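Incident review: delayed structure delivery

Summary: a single-chain prediction request sat in the queue longer than the usual turnaround. Root cause was a stuck worker, restarted by the on-call engineer. No data loss occurred. The affected request and its eventual output are reproduced below so the record is complete for anyone auditing the incident later.

Affected input:
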Amino acid sequence: MRKAMIFAAGRGERMRPLTDTTAKPLLPAGGKRLIEWHLEKLAALGIRDVVINTSHLAGQFPQALGDGDRWGLRIRYLDEGPVPLETGGGMLNALPLLGPEPFLLVNGDVWSDLDFATLPGRPRGHAHLVLVANPSHHADGDFVLADDGTVHAEGAPRWTYAGIGVFRPELFGNWREVVGEVDGADQRPPRFRLLPLLVDAMRRGAVGGQRHDGHWVDVGTPQRLRELDAGLRHD
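Output delivered after worker restart:
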């Protein structure tokens, strides 16, 4: 696995007013920008090519991160324009740069001490998701992790998707049929969510996963950012 994608196109409404002037993945925590924690870990894993999709304050990313050379990476940016393509459309739009092999995906607005080396380089199905204990702000969770390592949309107990996983381009083989007539699906490039594709693949037993019991934060509010920053500086 030599390539990765970082989702960085969100507006970060809940992080306002911080995100009025700074893109959320570029906010600092523990002396580094959130996205820089990911870039360091990707480089340590042996990743060499990283695609970052952008929208809100898109011009800040190349200014802050450059071409990735300082981490031994090659960063390529995909500016989706003023309206993000959402998770599914953003990933589909990036596939020409990511190529035909499995790639690592990480949300730019999470922080975790997960060792990326524990992720499979070649997942058994179309996707492999990292799941964590449900935080208080998402108590109902997202998915179920079965004893055989497959992930399902129905059942219990439920865990929260950490925004970290390994994906195969084949997940998008029938994307148009799966997403149906949602707004944005017919635009070029299309805009749609990733969730329907994952649920469809889960029904076919084509999504695996693993639990992470370490530290993970969805940095979705200024308070959580302050708490993460304080914890990292204390460590």
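Verification: Residues 86-98 form the longest helix (13 residues).
Action items: add queue-age alerting; document worker restart procedure.
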